[in-house]
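Quick one: examine this chain and its backbone structure tokens and tell me how the chain folds. Here goes:
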Amino acid sequence: MKKTVLSVWVLTLTFLMLAGCTSPTRDRFENNADVKRDAQGITVSLRDGVAKHVRLQVYADDIVRVTATPHENFDNLPDYLMVVAQPEKVDFEVFETADAVELQTTRMRARVDLASGAVTFFDASGKPLLSEAERKFSDVIDEPGQADADSYSVQQRFDVDANEGFFGLG
């Protein structure tokens, strides 16, 4: 009886130790970031960087929604500021390297730099489409009333060619 109890105890401990070693994502912040995959895309949690979390959600083969926050989670984002469309069921793959993670559909790729959280988009052939140059979160200023404690102002810059322009961004 004692041998059976001891054997079950040893097997349980061995299973628990092995379960901790075979995590589906790498150890948190092993390379400055933790990457988690779900049915809609990926969330990258950054140890260093302006954003603490960068989330990529696949809405279609050629649409990836990017959400970034300097907070511990996305809970502070009000529904009325969000996209109300529901994502399509799209197959995608995730590839990780030492310095980036890529989410790929049949029509595009989105790469997140694991040090800065900057996102770069590519077409299916690998041609760069859009590259984030800088993202800043700062305190809200010039607000007509008292700003909420978890409010922030966002500034985002993109790398552009001399013959490109962005229109309709406010």
Remarks:
- Helices lie at 2-21.
- The chain has one helix and ten strands.
